[in-house]
Amino acid sequence: MTYRNPPTTPRKSATFDDYTLSEIRRAAATGIYDIRGAGAKRKLPHFDDLLFLGASISRYPLEGYRERCDTSVVLGSRHAKKPIELKIPITIAGMSFGSLSGPAKEALGRGATLAGTSTTTGDGGMTEEERGHSKQLVYQYLPSRYGMNLRDLRRADAIEVVVGQGAKPGGGGMLLGQKISDRVAEMRTLPKGIDQRSASRHPDWTGPDDLEIKILELREITDWEKPIYVKVGGARPYYDTALAVKAGADVVVVDGMQGGTAATQEVFIENVGQPTLACIRPAVQALQDLGMHRKVQLIVSGGIRNGADVAKALALGVDAVSIGTAALVALGDNDPRWEAEYNELGTTSGAYDDWHEGKDPAGITTQDPELMKRVDPVAAGRRLANYLKVMTLEAQTIARACGKNSLHNLEPEDLVALTIEAAAMAGVPLAGTNWIPGKNGF
Amino acid sequence: MPATSKAMRDSHARVFDLDILSLRELNQALHNLAPGSNETAWEVLNPKGNHSVAVGVDQPVSIDVRGSVGYYCGGMNSGSTITVHGSAGPGVGENMMAGSIVIKGDASQYAGATGKGGLLVIEGNASSRCGISMKGIDIVVHGNIGHMSAFMAQSGNLVVLGDAGDALGDSIYEARLFVRGKVDSLGADCIAKEMRPEHLELLQGLLDRAGVTGVKPSEFKRYGSARTLYNFNIDNADAY
After folding, report:
1. What is the DSSP secondary-structure string of B41-81?
2. In whole angstroms, what is the distance from residue B13 CA to residue B42 CA?
3. Which pTM value belongs to this model?
4. What is the pLDDT of residues A408-425, one digit of tens each?
5. Is the CB of B95 inside 8 Å of chain A's CB atoms?
6. Does B12 touch chain A (CB under 8 A)?
7. Burial class (CB in 10 A: 0-12, 13-18, 19+), A237
8. So what's the pLDDT on residue B7?
9. What residues contact A348, with CB distance under 8 A and at least 6 apart?
């Protein structure tokens, strides 16, 4: 009788996990890094790491469903003759035509208008679908200037100078040739079928002093009527916010690391920038240090999912939030009804992120005429409006419990953090203590 | 407004003296022009390096600027004829849609950036990044241009009677570049191309429109895209 050693359980490396191994194999086989959309997927410190302190004795709550809790917000009152007035502090972030289909853009406009908020164009110009169905439309002024023209600039309700994006601060983009339809090619002044590079920097200015003069030019062109937003990727939020204010921005938009993108290198999405939660306090601090908090409005985006996220962002000092990925899901992207087709593409609903390939079964991130028929702009717009209203109701519920008759009266004192990391990033106490890491306390 | 009254009597031009009136008043007056307006001739005195002079004009009027301007003169011009009797700062004619801009002196960097149409003529020299990301504009420079000109140029024509700096036409798409003098270096994917009869004809037309005389199209070389980087391929990674 021979003695056999007992079998051991195979153990995979935590460093070389299954996903990492598959990426190494894919890189070796294809010779190119993965390009995708959908923003960072790794777990990051986020709003889930914060909790609200509802009222008991030391605070006096408001009655749910009875006492009024205001949700309106005015954006761009610093210089513009015609500021943006929104019913809710949740806006739709810029997503390009080209990346999104025409019906998807129309649905965004319909949904946002029903809910009383604004939509934003993207790197590809303004479409009739979006302008026609958006009561308030923010026109993005991007480095590529695809589709930029005087007529549309004047048809916009606000202008957003995009300097950076949360998924890729400092990075440009690439719309692969297979997604370039005749219409997209014409809007971007490029031949059909070739890759379209979105530049990483504006071609006609090189720093904050130039930005100030560029903003002056945009104001002159539009007769000082429209608010000028400046959007930055969440990397150096304190200094970028301060410089945007110095350059004359009416509104600063800080897009955190969980922000989406149509198509960027996976390694970039997952490794450049800071979590949205970490960006808010420095941006608010910059406004406070300059005496401009609530005078220059702050919009924060990147991973906003529900009313609690909205309320937490507002409590930390922002004036409004912006949603992109969540809006696409509300329209119907990554819906399990298309599971079989997601499987054919080698993925599953909930994980589909090859938005640049133009094969989206949901018909949203595509230019395929057959696929885009799957989006009913009226029904999808209604779903988006429902979602926006639900988020607003959720935020109001929390605010009333904290004794606030306006979402904008929420404050850092209403929050505690579950982790030391979140406490340090958000500048609120660790739950059960009065300790804010980096500040005095016990 | 005494200056205005005298000039209007003498030339029927509407005169804006920026020593008396503000830039805002000038641009607003230009934007208030209705289609078919009889106020087709404008004169701007004492620009003194002001930024954003005559930006966003969308009527077919002529504007003579008597002196040098700062940034973004004629930005987003959509049909007017602007003549700067002096030099221009950065970004002259940025994103021009239609019409023409003539700079009698020199222009600073990124002249004609992202321009989609119309004609930009610089009778002196232009600086770096001339025609950067151009998207259909025609640019004629009587003198020299600096480095990184026509970077990521998508369409339109850039004509240079003098020399070009380093990295001309880097990452160029379908724009055509014509240079009469020497080119310090070509950027990625930009190559010299054959000058065929249709190009000679096109160039002659551009020279005529820009008021260039005594220069033959055959004196120029043509540059454009090798089109090897139009679709990403890892085998071309050394070019990036």
Report:
1. EEEEE--TT-SSTT-S--S--EEEEES-B-TTTTTT-EEEE
2. 5
3. 0.95
4. 999 999 999 999 999 999
5. yes
6. no
7. buried
8. 45
9. A339, A342
